[in-house]
Amino acid sequence: MSLRRRYIHLHRYRQVVNVLARYGFGYLLDQLGLGELILRRPRREAPLSPGARLRLALAELGPTFIKLGQILSTRPDLLPADIIAELARLQDRVPPFPFAAVQHTVEKELGQPLEQLFREFDPEPLAAASIGQVHRATLPGGNQVIVKVQRPGIAEQVRVDLEIIFDLARLAQRHTAYGQIYDFTQMVDEFARAMEGELDYTREGRHADRLRENLAGNPQVYIPAVYWDYTTVRVLTQEYVEAVKLNDLEEIDRRGYDRRRIATNLARAIYQQVLVDGFFHGDPHPGNLAVLPGEVIVFMDFGLVGALSEERQEQFINLMLGIIRRRSQDVLRTILAMGVVPDGVDRNALRHDIETLRDRYYHLALSQISLGRAVEELLQLAFKYRLRLPPELTLLAKTLITLEGLARELDPTLELAELAEPYGRELLRRRFSAGALWQALADNLSSTWEMLQHLPRQFQHIVEMLEGGELTLKIELLNLRSLVRQIDRIINKLTMSVVLLAFSIIMASLIISTALGAPGTSLFFRLPTLEIGFGAAGLMLLWLLVAMWRGSRD
Q1: Membrane-spanning residues where (predicted)?
Q2: Which pLDDT band, with edges at 50, 70 and 90, does 206 fall under?
Q3: CA-CA 20 to 30 A from 510: which of 44, 198, 306, 494?
Q4: 512 within domain boundaries
């Protein structure tokens, strides 16, 4: 690392630590061993909730931390509901950067002067965010486009911030109780991959192309085209679509669009992405959605997407079917299959809470069941029991909840679960089709054959280790040290009891001898033997009683 980079890193590290301290997180920094970096302890300010203070701190720290907060706002399995609600308010809006910087970046990336690349290029941005900003332009052939240009220096800033966040995650892993439950470094690694995607506009373009290909058979969905000759890592050029944003309900009504049909088309498009294709738009808020004549839904901004493997799709369907069919055992089995239940979880209590969730839907018809709400309640259970859920499931939950909120706003009477049912049936049909069953059989036979091929060699290796005396059997008794301590205490108590009994016999003999008139000339009988003996016996008896009382408490 160069000297300049070290200086930038240290300067930013101090800035992050002091912003967090100023918003009341100094105690956490002390716990992580970073208290010495705090330049000045803040005075008490007007009380704010922890969620509000965290939101303000992340907003002040800039783009990387804002994105981190937005990602965390989709993880109700990690954070309580009040903090989630605050983080959901984080806005990625910043002042635009100068047009001269825009022109410099475009010409450097595309290799030609701006006037040769575009017939027209509007210097006023349509929108500005922390990573980049969007301008409207016209290609030489007359096609209307939008050009997204990355903010100068943002890539370097994000890299420095990610290094700091990685460091904080490692410290939290070692020094906090939650580090024994959650793998913070893995979470930051997932976040870093997401940020790298945000900084690579070619990846966003590929996301758009994949969604367009998947939805090609749905005439009620439109994905803007990507102009690859005008697209690089830092510049993205897409087709400009003149459409009405879904949050502009007045304009939708003025144009006479059918709200119910809009909501239906949107729901079917998302259900197809989730339940059929396994690749879905991860941020379908109203600003990223628009509608064309004929109630055609336009998706925009493909920086955040979710991908579900066939296994994850099946697990999601099993979760939903387990709730709908009132089979809590199926829900619990699916959660266990995800491998997300840490050791020490009270599975009986977890099953009881799942049954409570099931009973909540027991008397509801399918049309009345909210898939988004059901997943959200499962995520709340995950937070309660510290279950480690896969991040794609939480992103899916956010997508479904956003969809249901939009659908309710467009048409509160729309029954979304009924629209989802055909896609769920299609997924089940594909799972149990002859081709899928044959493929599963072929995969299992292949794995079994491979195992059988290696079995003779492995068996021979075991025999060789036995003959050479190299094979050792390791037996680990759980809580062995505690068991040895308990046995040791029991033996001490038994020994003390025997000693006390023997001492009692001796004292009894002395008392009898004294009573029978033992010779008083003996020095032994001239001492206060009885008093000393009774005192010693009393102390030993008291020790034995205390030891027995402590043992009963253990």
Answers
A1: 490-512, 532-549
A2: very high
A3: 494
A4: no
